[in-house]
Design brief:
By secondary structure, this protein is an all-alpha fold. 63% of the residues lie in helices and 0% in strands. The chain is globular, with a radius of gyration of 18 Å.
C-alpha cells in the first residue's frame, strides 16, 4: 500500500504552470523550497530571486516553470486541495451510512494536518499553514473570473461539490447544500487562523477544534 501511495500524483490544472515542476529535480526543488520559503517569510515578501538564491539556481530558471509567484501560489493551493480530496475520497469510499460518511468527510477537510510521508518533496504541514494564511490571495484578485474560466480552481470546486453531494444524500430537501459545503471548507481555514491569532473571537482552542465545530454545525443544520 505504501508503494502504491508513493506513486500518487496530484493532477494540477496544466494552465497554471509553464512546465510541470514534477517533471524534473529542479522543478521539485522549486516546489519543496518554495513551500518552506513562503512559510518562513510570507507570500508578500516571497520572491523568485530569494527562492533562486535558496536553491542555488538562477531566478530565470524558475520562470521556466511559473509565469509569476501568483501562479506558484495557485499551483501549491491546487495541489493541496487535490491532496485533501484524495484523502477524503479514500477515507469515505467504504462508508455506507450517509451520516457517518459526511462526518468523516468533514473531519478530513477540517482536521489538523499531519505530514504524509509517502510524498517526500512536499511538507503538507507547512503547506497547510500557507493555505490557512495565504489561500484567499489566490482568488481575491481582479483577474479571478478569467482565472476561474481557465479552470484554475477546478479542484477546489470539485471538493466543494463532493461535500455538497454528501449533504444532499443525507437530506435531499436541505436548501443550502453548496453554501454549507463551501462554508465548511473556507470557514475551517478561518477558524484555524483565529485559533492561532485571535483567540478572543473564536471558541476553538486546544480542546475545541474547528472539526468539532463544523461537524456540530453541519449535522444540526441538516437534521433540524
Amino acid at each position: 500500500m505504501i508503494n502504491l501511495l508513493s506513486n500518487l500524483k496530484i493532477q494540477v490544472p496544466d494552465k497554471i504552470y509553464i512546465k510541470d515542476p514534477e517533471s524534473s529535480k529542479l522543478g521539485m526543488r522549486i516546489i519543496e523550497d518554495g513551500i518552506k520559503l513562503i512559510d518562513e517569510v510570507g507570500f508578500d515578501d516571497f520572491t523568485f530571486k530569494k527562492l533562486g538564491s535558496r536553491i542555488g539556481s538562477n531566478e530565470s530558471s524558475i520562470y521556466r516553470y511559473f509565469e509569476n509567484k501568483h501562479k506558484l501560489l495557485l499551483y501549491l493551493t491546487s495541489w493541496y486541495w487535490g491532496w485533501i480530496e484524495y484523502q477524503m475520497v479514500f477515507a469515505t469510499h467504504s462508508i455506507e451510512d450517509k451520516r457517518q460518511k459526511l462526518i468523516r468527510a468533514i473531519e478530513m477537510v477540517t482536521r489538523e494536518v499531519e505530514r504524509d510521508l509517502t510524498i517526500t518533496h512536499i511538507d503538507e504541514v507547512a503547506l497547510n499553514r500557507i493555505v490557512i494564511n495565504e489561500y484567499s490571495k489566490s482568488y481575491l484578485t481582479k483577474e479571478v473570473d478569467n482565472a476561474n474560466k481557465e479552470g484554475y480552481f477546478v479542484i477546489y470546486k470539485r471538493l466543494v461539490s463532493r461535500i455538497r453531494d454528501m449533504i444532499l444524500a443525507l437530506n435531499p430537501k436541505y436548501p443550502f447544500p453548496s453554501s454549507l459545503a463551501s462554508t465548511i471548507i473556507e470557514g475551517s481555514l478561518h477558524q484555524h487562523f483565529l485559533k492561532d491569532h485571535f483567540q478572543s473571537i473564536t471558541d476553538c482552542n486546544k480542546t475545541v477544534t474547528p472539526m468539532g465545530f463544523f461537524t456540530d454545525l453541519t449535522i444540526k443544520s441538516i437534521e433540524a
